[in-house]
Write a structure and sequence with these properties.
InterPro entries: Bact_solute-bd_prot1, Chitin_NgcE, SBP, TAT_signal. By secondary structure, the chain is α/β, with parallel strands linked by helices. It is built from 19 helices and ten strands.
């Protein structure tokens, strides 16, 4: 599966030295009717609370005595940042009774409440059991957050909230037209995460091309260290580095075609080259043994213990893996390595976008309260608290002045600066959650990286899943504008 000699003759390029598999065809796949069942209910709930009086300090007209219910996903960022923001709401509106809870079972706990018309007022819809955002939007089950975006920011009433956000955050919350259905609170840098200390012990630096990546993995293997590991039970983590790798090889338009569910989008040469490069890691034995059967925490623990050099992940990993990360780990992140000199985008091309999606259900009793809680979270004080607590940036553009950045956060910031305009933002995980996680991730990439399917077989299977999604009239479809 390829040869490292391509590094010595860049004119040939690695993709010319990798054997191509048979032509792609369609396969029969299950329909995605599950998606429509996921958010089937649109039944009306109880009446909403009365609106309060709009004032300079209360631009959303929050009912100061109305109850508020918040449910937070308890994942890599924990819940303390949200509890701290809730305390600010409580201080601002002392008459309000606030019910705050957390869970890792977002879909199984909250979907029945959506269907019954009695959802909470604010939800952090994240994690493995994330409710399908595209379906919620398509079924008109979310509140348009435009009033929040047009409200005065807490820090500077002369500015609207929308004017204080990082580029792309508002657009990410839009699915079709002007309404904004989701507020992505965290700003996540995805990529290949590693320990600079581990590389230093191998007298190495991060490999900027794939030949050097394979050479470093071979060197590590001789010392009993795996090149890569990943969340085997949640292989939809693989795209965190694989998707920007595809864009780097073939241009960002390849990812746009994939997001748009265009016919034969997955048969693009850039996809083939990227899949075959990753498959090479498996074929050469550079994946940590047992990886397909471990979850994200177990893979991160093995990685922080020095059993593997690289792991595809998001910037939440610094907080999530902190308990097992040695003090001298020197956490760092990089964009994917180059494949060869004919790549369409430069080294440094990376995926960075809003993360931790917050939603206000349409049938929530107190939607104004839910938006007000988000307005509080988007203040500089709450943003700094989040960054200091969980070692990640927020959607607020800035909010890091006076904060001593941790190694991972410093590296992520440097990676963003290096990328410049070469930042990609695939939307598949927002628009078609089941397609991305269960089908492309588990049934596709998971099988390939475990050695149970070839790249050609995997591409054919994934194209079939995408075609089925494109033809499924029970779900709403979205396209890049």
């Amino acid at each position: 599966m390829g040869s490292t000699s391509a590094h010595n003759n860049e004119g040939l390029g690695r993709r010319d030295l990798i054997k191509r598999s048979a032509a792609l065809g369609l396969i029969t796949v299950p329909t995605m009717s599950f998606l429509s069942a996921c958010a089937s209910g649109d039944s009306g709930g109880d009446e909403k609370v009365e609106k309060g009086k709009k004032t300079e300090k209360n631009p959303l007209g929050v009912n100061e005595s109305a109850p508020l219910e918040i449910v937070i996903f308890d994942g890599g960022f924990g819940t303390k940042y949200a509890e701290d923001a809730k305390a600010v709401y409580q201080k601002t509106y002392p008459k309000a009774e606030i019910k705050f809870s957390s869970t890792q079972k977002i879909r199984s706990q909250l979907q029945p409440r959506f269907n019954g018309g009695t959802p909470p007022d604010l939800i952090d819809n994240s994690g493995a059991e994330q409710m399908d955002m595209g379906v919620l939007v398509g079924k008109k089950q979310l509140t348009d957050l435009t009033p929040l975006l047009d409200a005065a920011s807490i820090d500077d009433p002369s500015k609207k909230v929308r004017d204080t956000l990082r580029p792309g955050i508002v657009e990410m919350g839009q699915f079709d037209g002007d309404p904004v259905w989701i507020m992505y609170y965290a700003y996540t840098v995805y990529g290949v995460w590693y320990s600079e200390s581990a590389l230093e012990k191998l007298d190495a630096t991060y490999p900027e091309n794939w030949d050097d990546m394979l050479a470093l993995c071979a060197k590590a293997k001789k010392k009993g260290i795996a090149g890569w590991t990943y969340a085997g039970k949640h292989p939809y983590y693989l795209p965190f580095s694989l998707y920007p790798f595809i864009a780097k090889i073939g241009g960002r338009e390849v990812l746009d075609k994939i997001d748009n569910l265009e016919p034969n989008a997955w048969s693009d040469p850039a996809v083939k080259a990227a899949f075959e490069a990753y498959y090479e890691l498996y074929k050469k034995g550079y994946i940590l043994k047992g990886t397909p059967s471990i979850d994200h925490i177990q893979s991160q623990t093995a990685w922080t213990q020095g059993k593997a050099l690289f792991i595809p992940n998001g910037s939440w990993v610094e907080n999530e893996a902190s308990k097992t990360m040695p003090a001298d780990f020197k956490l760092a992140v990089s964009a994917p390595s180059s494949l060869d000199s004919s790549d369409k985008m430069p080294f440094g091309t990376i995926w960075a976008s809003g993360g931790e999606p917050f939603i206000v259900p349409k049938s929530a009793k107190n939607p104004d309260g839910g938006m007000e809680q988000l307005r509080i979270m988007l203040s500089e004080a709450s943003s700094k608290n989040f960054t200091q607590s969980v070692k990640s940036l927020t959607a607020l553009n800035g909010g890091t002045d006076g904060i001593e950045l941790t190694p991972g956060l410093k590296s992520a910031t440097a990676a963003l600066e290096k990328a410049g305009d070469n930042v990609v933002n695939p939307r598949l995980q927002d628009w078609y959650v089941k397609l991305q996680k269960e089908q492309i991730g588990v049934a596709g990439l998971g099988e390939m990286m475990a050695g149970r399917a070839t790249p050609a077989e995997t591409i054919k299977k994934i194209q079939g899943f995408a075609d089925a999604a494109a033809k499924d009239q029970s779900i709403k479809h979205y396209k890049h504008q």
